[in-house]
Structures are given as structure tokens and as C-alpha cells.
Design a protein that fits this description.
Elements lengths: L10 E7 L5 H14 L11 H13 L4 E8 L12 E10 L10 E8 L8 H15 L31 E7 L9 H8 L4 E12 L2 E11 L1
Parallel strand pairs: 4-5
Antiparallel strand pairs: 1-2, 2-3, 3-4, 5-7, 6-7
Helix pairs in contact: 1-2
Length: 220
């Protein structure tokens, strides 16, 4: 899967499924925001083993995990010379996994290398990951049937369970030091149909200040 290359055509941006080999680069990007931003409420850097576990868990749920990579082009054939340098990633994770009733709801995460923000990389990742979730409709794989009073899993009531993912949530911190106090990012999500559905006031404490959170939701 390829997005538009850069204007001078010395490299090309490619969106592809994440590989195990990408975990170190993914971890490095995330830890930049841990240490320098309120975009994540994580306050201590993740080891690579944490993202390796997350990678396997997302694959187990049959959900997409994508990376954006920048690859140099062959000067004579105009094709990528290798898999490229990871400059961003996006994935869906089961919301409150593994609670079964949430099986049709996922949470979206997108992070970009700080040197490649505002260059269309996030837009390319968002376009691809939404296309995958709409086109391939992965079957939710979390939880089991609710047991009845005896502890036996409840029998189907004749109503078939819906297929695929129905709701996408984005739970984002409000960075008052970002452009327009973080509202530019909200506006960006709304381009894809996300709507503001909730506000959590002062629920985060990082860098010696209280941080609000917005909940955005997209129904497929």
C-alpha cells in the first residue's frame, strides 16, 4: 500500500502492516511523546517488550496495526530500495478488552515521528486504517457469552450478533500548548466524521499541570 511520494521523488511514503522488526522504531516514537508531550498520559518510557506484547494482542484481536515508512527510491527504476524508515504508526485496539459487550467498539491510536508531523503522514495513515476497518470488517475477538445465574454461558436468543466493528473511539488529551489549545487536532479528526461525545475535566496530571480529555466517536 503506497501513499503519494515526496515532491522531489527521492523517497516514497508507504503505508503497510506493522512487522515485528518495526517494534523498536514504534517504541522510540511513542517514548518521544511520553517524555515530551501530554499526547499520552504514560509518564515513564515503555520498553520494547511492552510494544511487542501490544503488537501480538492487536493481531490476536484481528485488528489492523499499520506503519508509515519512508523509503529511498532507486534512481533508475523509481521503486523503493527497502522497507523504509518507520515515521509513524496507527492501530485499533479493543475498547476495554477483553470485556465482551464492548467487542464491536475499538479505540484508535495514531503517533508520528516529531520530524514528520504536518506533512500528510497522519492523513495517509487515517485514510488507510479506516478503509481497512470498513472494507474487511474484522470479527471482534474479545470476551465470551454472558453467563446466567448458574454460571453457564447464556444461550443465543435468536438475534444474530452484529458483524465487524461498529464504533471507533478516539480518547485524546487536550494540549493547551498546542495550536489553538489543542482544538486543531479535534478539527482534524472531525474531517473523517468523528464527533465530540464527552469531556473529562482535569483527569490527567503531567508536567505539573492538570490536563483535560476529549472523547470523539465515529460510527461506521
Amino acid at each position: 500500500m503506497s501513499a503519494n511520494g515526496t515532491s522531489n521523488r527521492v523517497s516514497t511514503l508507504t503505508i503497510r502492516p506493522a512487522l515485528l522488526a518495526d517494534v523498536p522504531a514504534i517504541t522510540s516514537i511513542f517514548n518521544h511523546y511520553v517524555q515530551r508531550s501530554v499526547q499520552t498520559f504514560q509518564t515513564t518510557p515503555f520498553p520494547e517488550s511492552e510494544f511487542l506484547s501490544r503488537f501480538h494482542k492487536i493481531k490476536e484481536q484481528d485488528l489492523p496495526f499499520l506503519v508509515a515508512s519512508l523509503s529511498p527510491l532507486s534512481p533508475d527504476q523509481d521503486v523503493p530500495l527497502h522497507d523504509g524508515t518507520v515515521i509513524g504508526y496507527a492501530y485499533f485496539s479493543g475498547f476495554r478488552y477483553p470485556m465482551g459487550a464492548y467487542a464491536h467498539t475499538v479505540e484508535l491510536s495514531i503517533f508520528l515521528h516529531p520530524d514528520h508531523r504536518m506533512r500528510g503522514v497522519g492523513t495517509a495513515l487515517m485514510n488507510w486504517i479506516l478503509d481497512i476497518i470498513r472494507t474487511h470488517k474484522p470479527r471482534p475477538k474479545q470476551g465470551i457469552s454472558m453467563p446466567d445465574a448458574s454460571g453457564t454461558p447464556a444461550k443465543p436468543d435468536g438475534v444474530p450478533e452484529p458483524e465487524g466493528i461498529r464504533e471507533i473511539l478516539c480518547i485524546m488529551s487536550v494540549d493547551v500548548e498546542a495550536p489553538k489549545q489543542g482544538m486543531e487536532l479535534v478539527k482534524w479528526y472531525k474531517k473523517w466524521g468523528f464527533k465530540e461525545v464527552g469531556d473529562l475535566k482535569g483527569v490527567g496530571w503531567k508536567f505539573n499541570r492538570w490536563i483535560d480529555v476529549k472523547i470523539l466517536q465515529l460510527r461506521l
